Amino acid sequence: MAKRSVQRPDFGGPFPEHLAVIMDGNGRWAQERALRRVLGHREGINSVREITTECAKLGVKSLTLYAFSVENWKRPRAEVSYLMGLLRQFLIDERPTLMENGVRLIAIGRIATAG
């Protein structure tokens, strides 16, 4: 499959239409600062907002955020519950912005809970 890109003279040539980001290390980031892991996950929301805003400015057509792996279901139940609640609240809070910008959200991969 050929890589698709758009010409961006301001970047010196082609620029990808699709970017993928593996979201990892928020819990470790917090622990390194003697904070609770959940505070790192909450800080990750700001990173998502920043990434999506910049991708929109750059003309990226598709953005994949790898946010939750099968292994994450092995985390303590309270942490998994917090992460799911954080996602739910983020989507509720950001819904107006997503709709204004014509963002289409698609969950991919194994989206059923572990068990």
Topology:
Elements: E1 5-8, E2 13-16, E3 18-22, H1 26-32, H2 37-58, E4 62-66, H3 77-100
Parallel strand pairs: 3-4
Antiparallel strand pairs: 1-2
What does this structure look like?
- By secondary structure, this protein is an alpha+beta fold.
- The protein has a single domain, classed as Undecaprenyl pyrophosphate synthetase (3-Layer(aba) Sandwich), CATH 3.40.1180.
- The protein has 3 helices and 4 strands, in the order βββααβα.
- It has helices spanning 26-32, 37-58, 77-100, and strands at residues 5-8, 13-16, 18-22, 62-66.
- It has a two-stranded antiparallel ribbon. It has a two-stranded parallel ribbon with strand order 3-4.
- A hairpin with a 4-residue loop joins strand 1 and strand 2 (13-16).
- The longest helix has 24 residues, at 77-100.
- The termini are far apart.
- 2% of the residues are buried.
- The mean pLDDT is 84.
